[in-house]
Write a structure and sequence with these properties.
Blueprint: H1 2-18, H2 20-36, H3 50-56, H4 58-74, E1 76-80, H5 86-95, E2 100-104, H6 129-140, E3 145-149, H7 158-162, E4 171-174, H8 179-191, E5 196-199, E6 211-215, H9 223-234, E7 242-246, H10 260-269, H11 285-302, H12 315-331, H13 336-340, H14 344-354, E8 368-372, E9 384-388, H15 389-401, H16 406-409, H17 412-428
Parallel strand pairs: 1-2, 1-4, 2-3, 4-5, 5-7
Antiparallel strand pairs: 6-7, 8-9
The protein binds 2-acetamido-2-deoxy-beta-D-glucopyranose (NAG) (2 copies).
Length: 429
Amino acid sequence: MGNNTWKVIVTTALISVFSSHLVKAAWKEYKLSCAANKNKIVLQPRQYDEDLYREQLARNYAFLGEEGMRKVKEQYIVIVGAGELGSWVCTMLIRSGCQKMMIIDPENITIESLNTHCCATLSDVGKHKVECLKEHLSKVAPWSEIKAKAKAWTKEASEELIFADGDSPTFIVDCLDNLESKVDLLEYAHNNKINVISSMGIATKSDPTRVNISDISMTEFDPISRCVRRKLRKRGIITGIPVVFSNEMLDPRRDDVLSSVDIEHHAINANRDEALRHLPELGTMPGIFGLSIATWILTKVSGYPMKKNEVKNRLKFHESILETFKKQMERLNEDKDQSSLIVLKEVGYIVEEMFRGKSPISGYSTKLALTKWKADKEVSFTNLVLLTKDEQEIHEKRVLRDGEKLTAVYSSEVLNVIERIFKEEQYYS
Ligand SMILES: *[C@@H]1O[C@H](CO)[C@@H](O)[C@H](O)[C@H]1NC(C)=O
Ligand SMILES: *[C@@H]1O[C@H](CO)[C@@H](O)[C@H](O)[C@H]1NC(C)=O
């Protein structure tokens, strides 16, 4: 296959040299028509020469093939968010041959956005983000048909925004940086069976080799992914949403300033219109995330082969933890129904999402067990704690059997941590 690809590239290159006079003519014609439309800022869509399109996209034709490029051309992609992330997605999809797009964002370009934005200049400051992109992209790809909506995406306005003019998108790209709206948009796309891809936390990340694309259920070591995962789960969505995320762990030297728990708190306590952009962020990272999304969409829609992710094998681990809990219920002679209250997949949630895979007391992540926490309360999400097996034994003896008070057994620090975990769970419930 490699051989053929190179042949195609060489041939295309040769053809492009011979046809360049043709392209010059096309450009001349195009410039003339621009001059005629001098008063209009934006060019009329599809006012182009097929030869120009092919010349400009010769290398993508060589890579994705005729059929692949036909599919790329057919897409109608709706991009929600046109800032640090969305600007890269829009730009590279248009530069790669996508012809039809809708960009939605209510905001204007600010000075500080120049640090991350794909194409905005100082003279764009104060303009609508969507108009800035539309203007810029029309100059790159006169064949593109870009709709720009300077409006906020909301659940209520979703039909009107996304299906404007009766067109159905082939893809929605979530480039929002607010947790609530993000989850609403993902839920909307999922429920309406529209292909979607989303971006997780960019702030505090800096390692380009850790940027990854996976199903939301497979994301790890990313606090924003955890928030999105938990919120979606409470809306009945566990898998089926591809996301770009970074599994880079926070530099421990920064931990006292900004732990991943702090980031989650920041995200869940921000109100609907507050973005996550107050966290420290390196300006190159949004571009990497955006280009990853654009690349993923291009290969996906053109049918370029991609290898599958392996399924995370945590199932056995969760099963063994569930076993520790069932045994405890037997030892305590508690109602059997109580232990079957938590089915296996809920154990996974409790272990991974609520307790982040480790005992809140010792921080150990091996030999784990689940225990009922308060003796006089029913078993529920907010009355179960992940401990080590040794810790479970002590808890069972002193608190659950001998009836000692929690404050007599644990320091206030430990109790605060557990209270915080339960409070967090109430937020998601
Ligand atoms: C945003 O840009 C639009 C159009 O460029 C302008 O009319 C509006 O006043 C701007 N808003 C702000 C808050 O700068
Ligand atoms: C990407 O994420 C998946 C799922 O979490 C993981 O199995 C894989 O190792 C990750 N790849 C990289 C390069 O981090």
